[in-house]
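> tool_call: predict_assembly(chains=two)
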Amino acid sequence: MPPFRNIEIKINLTTKFVVLFLIIALIPLAIGIFISYDSSKRILEKESANYLYGVLENRISQIESYFLSQKEEAKKISSLDKTIKICESLNEFSERSGLSPVDYSLVDRSLALDLEYLTKSSDYNDFLFFSLNNQILFSKEKEYSEEKQQRFKDILTKAEEKNLETQITNFKYYPEDKKISAFIFSPILRENQPIGFLLLEINQRKFYYIFENKVGLGETGEVFISLRDGNKAVFISPLKNVLDAPLNRKIPFGAPTGEAIQKSLQGEDGWGAVKDYQGKKVLAVWRYLPAFEWGIVAKIEIEEVLESAIDLKNRLLLIALVLLIMIVFINFLLARSISNPIRSLTAITEKISQGNLTARAKIKTGDEIEKLGNSFNLMTEKLIQSQNELQKKFNELFAVLNSISDGVFVLDQNKNIKIFNPAAEDISDFKKEEIIGKKCNQVFNFVSEKNKKEKDNFIDLAMEEGIIKETKRDTILIKKNKEILPVAGAAAPLKNEFQKIIGCVIVFRDILKEREIDKAKTEFVSLASHQLRTPLSTVNWYSEMLLNEEVGKINEDQKKYLQALYGASRRMVSLVNALLNVSRIELGTFSINPEPVDFIKIVKNVLEELEPQIKIKNLEINEKYDFNLPIVNTDQKLLKIILQNLVSNSVKYTRFGGKIDLGILKQKEDVLIKVEDNGYGIPKKQQSKIFTKFFRANNILEKDTNGNGLGLYIVQTVVGGLGGKIWFESEENKRTCFYVSIPIKGMKYKSGNKILLN
Amino acid sequence: MSKKKIKVLIVEDEIALRQAMVDKFTREGFWTFAAKDGEDGLNQALTERPDIILLDIIMPNMDGLTMLKILRNDQEWGKDVPVMVLTNLSDVDNVSRAVENGVYEFLVKSDWRLDDLVDKVKEKLHFK
């Protein structure tokens, strides 16, 4: 057996209830918290995204209107009279002298003032006049690099191709300048004829204001734009946390951060929770602006977006915690209210099981447990009641056992002595205290009187066969002091409801006196019969010798007289024999010796013995035997006594030339013997008495003086001894038929110290 | 028939019965000896060594069964001599004790005719 097989985790009832309720309460609580947090998070995210879209749209329109206003302003400047006039003067100077603009101002003071006014009144990084053939007429700066000059040329060429309208370039990153720049091109017209071009470099500060405006973006929100530079995204608007972001801050495509920027520059529009350029989790909205080739992103840190959701979560968790504590507490109280009465009930049951039947459950919960407690109390009452009744009955039984004069003892299944009454003590000399619990056969020696080594195992047999067994006729008990005592008794097996033998009750008594009386009777009968037989034998034998004419001839009269003498003596002998049998029957001392018996053989034997009488009366004998007769285990001698009596009765009580039918028939469980004659019959009135001792029917008293009235009495007793039945049918002067049935299953050996005589 | 007479010892205390048997067996041609009790019977048996003994049970001085027991202890002759018990007792005890001591027949006197007894003796000794 594995050593840990029987280990169980024992949890008391309260804990079980608490854990159970907790689990039941915890699951919906957790699900509720999760659902409300998750849905509020989703709603918040979506709403924030929508809001960010709004901000984004707003910024885009701001950018567009910024560009539009820039354009309008430039157009306005270019169409100013003063501007036209300046341009004409600059053209004149250029044609005339080919001087640089600086020189113009020196030459023409009023032109210089006008130019100063123009540049100062507008906020542009650079302010350039170009001639129609793209020569710089005027600029704020003195000199330009080759690249810059080429750039101007490109802008002008492109713009001129577009019908000489006011145009604006995108902000572009110029590595040589290390800055972004955008230019406005506007033609200067006089009477709708171009006389020169104006090129204004926009001051990006103004542009940045759009992005520096953080209104409606909370604490962490911002909008920024970026553009593509090779395989990198370059910020072109300032960032909140990175002051020198424009142009300096770059994000390579494919980097894990700045996802929104990368996506916007790849031409996507969208929103989502992503990582920003700093690696923070943000909610971002992005768009690509194809007109500018910019990506624009509005983002806000997710923590801020979800601030209220997280707040909600925290609150929910707090509520859950409070709830949990409350649930545990309530659970505990609830569980206690259930388990406490059960526990007290358990305590009571333990007390009661330990034998304290006065303990009562006191539960006042008003529910099923109180009911349980009450019915438990009721049960206990009943228990006491039935225990008392049982005790009473037991006492009664014990009183009977104690006062009974027969010895009684009871064995359990293993033949250990359990009960031993005072009479048993008196008879055996053993004291109750010294033998209770001992094995029966270690204490009691029931043996045969003749052979002290031969045990009478009636107790073992009773317990083996499950039927009551009696002691044998000569059983004696060897007492404690080794004295012997003739006893008679019986062992009755105790069976439970399943017919299983669970013990044995043995009743026995001292039969010393009975034995002595029996012995005296037997001796008397035996002696009396001996004394009677001896003179009868003398008469018999001398009569016999005289009748045989062994000692001389006798005349007819002498012969007649001698025959009468001899006959009477013979009858006397059979009467003595019959009386002897009767006394043996009545003492119960005749033995039965079962052996396989052939019925037909016995009938034939009987007929042979009665042959002389049959012949004298010239009787017709009809025999009818079933051919498949079984061999039955029964007592041959006793069976012969039965047949002898019945057949000889028929012979005796049938007229000369009468008829006797003998039958032995096989029946289901018996062998049926049938002896029928057509003789005198039995008078109806006397039929009930014919098995009575010494009874003889009226109608045969005068016809036959040989009978002694004992035959049928003996037959009836013997049939009973063989376990059979006897009955008859008779009609006076017509017929008599005797039936004897002998069981096929045979019979048991019965010891006795006498045999019955034929 | 053998020329030598067959010796029959009759042990019986009842004079009338003893006489009847002696007369009968003598007439039948047996060499008959009679003893009045067990002691007498034992003496005669050991000296005469009869071919058969007819033995009563209840007798004064020594009963038949005691005599039989002593006789059977005689290893030289007594142990094998045929003994027929003739008694008027019919107890199982007596029968079984007799049979234990090698009695070949146990007869109740009153139930048997003398002729039958003679026949039984002759039968036993293959006399017929």
